[in-house]
Fold this sequence. Notes:
The complex is a heterodimer of chains A (885) and B (375). Chain A has 885 residues and is an alpha+beta fold. Chain A contains 17 helices and 19 strands. Chain B has 10 helices and 15 strands. At the A-B interface, helix 6, helix 7, helix 14 and helix 15 of A face helix 2, helix 9 and helix 10 of B.
Amino acid sequence: xxxxxxxxxxxxxxxTCEVHFRPTGVTVVVxxxxxxxxxxxxxxxxxFDNLDSSSRQDVRAVKPVHRDxxxxxxxxxxxxxxxxxxxxxxxxxxxxxxxxxxxxAENFTGREAHQRAESxxxxxxxxxxxxxxLVTQGQAFTQAKLADxxxxxxxxxxxxxxxSQDPRGDSLHAKVSAEVARYWTDRGGPRKDWQDLQxxxxxxxxxxxxxxxxxxxIDQDIxxxxxxxxxxxxxGVRSAExxxxxxxxxxxxxxxxxxxxxxxxxxxxxxxxGKSAEAAAKTRAARADLIRNTKTARESLxxxxxxxxxxxxxxxxxxxxxxxxxxxxxxxxxxASTIEAVADLxxxxxxxxxxxxxxxxxxxxxERVESARVEAAKARETLARNRADDKRLVAIDEAERAVTxxxxxxDSASPSIRIKVQASVRIESDGKRRTLREGTEETIPVPEExxxxxxxxxxxxxxxxxxxxxxxxxxAEARVSLASACSSAGVDSPAEARRRNTERHDADAAVAxxxxxxxxxxxxxxxxxxxTRLSSLTRxxxxxxxxxPSGSPQLPRNLDAAKSAYDxxxxxxxxxxxxxxxxxAECDRARKRRDRLQTDAGESExxxxxxxGSLRRLEQDLDKARREVPDEAIExxxxxxxxxxxxxxxxxxxxxxxxxxxxxxxxxxxxxTEEASLGSTDRQIATLQKTAADVxxxxxxxxxxxxxxxxxxxxxxxxxxxxxxxxxxRRAKAAQLLLxxxxxxxxxVRKAYVGPLQIRIEALGRILFDQSFAVEIDxxxxxxxxxxxxxxxxxxxxxxxxxxxxxxxxxxxxxxLVAAEGGPxxxxxxxxxxxxxxxxxxxxxxxxxxxxxxxVLLTSDPDRYAHVGDVEVVRLPPLSLPxxx
Amino acid sequence: MKFLxxxxxxxxxxRHFLSKEAQGRFSQARFDSIRSIARVAAEEQCAFVVVAGDxxxxxxxxxxTVHRALEALREFRVPVxxxxxxxxxxxxxxxxxxxxxxxxxxxxxxxxxxxxxxRVVDGVEVVGAPWTSKxxxxxxxxxxxxxxPPAGGTLRVAVAHGAVDTLSPDGSSPSRxxxxxxxxxxxxxxxxxxxxxxxxxVTEVGxxxxxxxxxxxxxxxxxxxxxxxxxxxxxxxxSCSVTEVATGTWRFTEWPEISATSPEDIESVRQRIEALPxxxxxxxxxxxxxxxxxxxxATLRAVLDHGRDLLAALEVREADYVVVPEGxxxxxxxxxxxVRATAEELMTKAxxxxxxxxxxxxxxALLIRLTVGES
Lengths: 885, 375
């Protein structure tokens, strides 16, 4: 079909608009916005798809908002041999008209017009393929669904040189698929209906089994009941026989029992007499025993007497041996105590001598400590009394020096008396008398006033006057200070102070020495311990010589001698002590032997006395017994009793034989056996009767359950279900086989006609890409992958732009193939993803397409198609109002 | 003295090839035939009725079956003697001692439980040989006849069930009825008529004219030669005449060889089915022989389907019949392209031997059906 002209009125936002298209080649429709031009493609579909009376949503959607007017669509087109103008108005004053001008003029209105338009379209156009090739907005890079498009298939068949495809092929394939789907699931399993049928068959088969089993059980019960009935009959006969036997045997047994009582009586008599004979024999044996025992006792007594005598003598000897070893043991013990005393003396001698030495040493130590203590005590006294310590001494020294200085100052300032002695003269100054030697000079200072007396001659007083007053005062003050310092130290003069200070130092030393002496001489002892020790040593040394036993050996001359004497004594003591131990052991042995013999002798004597006693008793018993019954009388009684017993035994034997002949054991055993058999038989009868009752009950219950009909009904169900199943399976398999065969052949054909499409796509594609461009087309006639420079990329992995270009190329290629029976290739806003360089090449491709097909490009951007060559550009008028959606 | 001899009612029998609805009618027909027999007995003024075994199809029949049978038996105005047969033996599970049976048994109905002569009406004794197990070990009738005193002035009718040695191919069965022994008893005047059951076709046995199988009063299977009758026996010590009275309403028809090779054959089948009387009570088994194209097969099947709708049952055996797809099956359809290739491949397979050929034929038939449905 080729669209020649399209007129829209009252259509969405469009008041009125008419567009003319090139029948062959490219028409570019430029719309002010997307919706206006999109309306063109939409309008063509609406026109063909809807009756003018339709009020479907897509029809109502195109009604203008602002006016109450019906949308109008008028299409002038050529399709196949037809040329026609097709008009519809929807919703308001609906109207349809179809004016066909070629090949024959026809005129239709209303539904007739719609139907005629449909039939023309159907006759001349593969509408499905046309729709598939349409690109509406936003679908630019999805591929057209080309498989199952009859026109394309036919075109491809022609192109591939094959026979023309059956136009029913694809729909037939779909029907066969649907038929297969009736039986099989997608996974190839049977569908639920089939499974249900199978389950019904199984269920019925199970029911058949159940019925058969129950019927078999009934049959078994019938057999069982028969068996039990027969068994009961034969057991009844046996029971009667047994009962008869039992009665006969019981009668025989009663006869036997009478005989048995008689035999038992004679047996008891024989037994009693036998016992009497035995008693007599026992009496005789007892007498013989008594005589024999008396004899034996006598022999025993003799033997015991000789044993006792021998043991008594052994005991005497042993006692003597004990006395002897005890004597020698005493001697050894005495020796030992003597030597022990000596050793003790020697030890004490050594201790005494050691004590003496220790006493001297300790006493020296005591003396040293004591004298140090006395000195220290004195020193402490001195220290307490003497206050001239170092500090005070320094004060005194300083005060003295001040007096000397003050004195010297006064001296140098005060007048002095210089005396040149011409002849020795005695003088007295300051209360002191002295002699001034001839030829000497002396100066006597006059601090204040000096009175110089020459005894007997003159008393001269020299006064210093007032000029030395202050110096004199200072001197006086210094002297007072000195006197005060001295008094503080408890001395009269500095010289004394110095002496007393030295004394103090000595006392300190004495105190210090005491500590030293105590450490050296007390050592580990305290003073009191030392004294105690000393006193004990003193007592030892003083008392020991006197205390030594008289007559003892002389005290050794020194400690060493004493020690060696002690060692010798100890060795002697050790030897004698071991001898004491030995002899004690010997005593012990002798005593034990004696004690044992004593016991043995005692026992032996006991035995002898006992033997004596028993013999005496036996002799008495024997005498007594013989007095009562003499030995000869006993013999007579025995003979008599044995005779009587033997007669009674014979009587019993006769009675017993009579009884045995009746075979009582056999009769009893037989009776017991028959009774047991009877019991067993009766029990079996009872058991079988119970079984019979059980079987009877089961048969009553199951026999009337209608099992026969149930079984036949179930068998009928199995038969029906299996027939149905067989039919279903047959149909299912046929459908499966048909689909498989159809698919195999269809795919083979598809593979064959993929070729021409591929050649066209590649020819167009090489304009865009290069000579290495190739595509792979799948069974659904879609581009599966692109290969360029030996690199193959799946379609879905290509860029959006490339996918868009390839999809468009594929559409153009298809349009070329079906040019004669195809519709216009309406492309809405394609190549939006294509970069400017490729727009050139795509323009060329569209132009080539346009040489054989009608191509309508809808766009808002006409520059995009500047390279399509000679094109018809149609501009849509602006919209009267904004679009509703 | 007239009496009625029948047997093999087989009450409770079902046939798997019958639809549920047809089975219902079939079962009802068997109860109805009891009433028909009662009418015959009344019309023919029979003094009593003997039923020679297999009254019930099994001892384990449903209570409903027993009750319906007893209800129908009420129609009789004369004594009816029932002999347990091989299907309903007098064993421990016998239907005749079930509470269903005992509770509803009409007074005129008697079960022959042993071989003691039963005085049915004055001057007439019936002596029966009931089956007491499914596998008796000797000729039950002979055993009864051996111990039987001479009949004297009484008319005596023996009733037995089982195959007779002269007709039974199974020579090893110990329970076969020895015809010679029966004839000997007849000649000795121990009995005057032997009423037999087991064989479903009415049959005279031996040469005495007094030994008969009555056959089943209502057919049960295809192999029955002459079913659907009861016998009215008019006998005395000197003479015996037997009249066959038709009671059957159903038919089992078998067409052992139906040629199916041409459109004419199909038409013939159609006409033959058309001609069958009482179709709703007719069970037909047809064995197809020959070969037809897919299209003719479809026609034949339409004819058979129509027959199936009318008949009580139509069983078709196709062991000797094949559908052979032929070029002309497809010519009218004018397949091309891969559809044609598909059809050709399936044709090749369909003409080959083996089980896959059948599958291929079915696939071709489906292809035609879907294509025709499309166009």
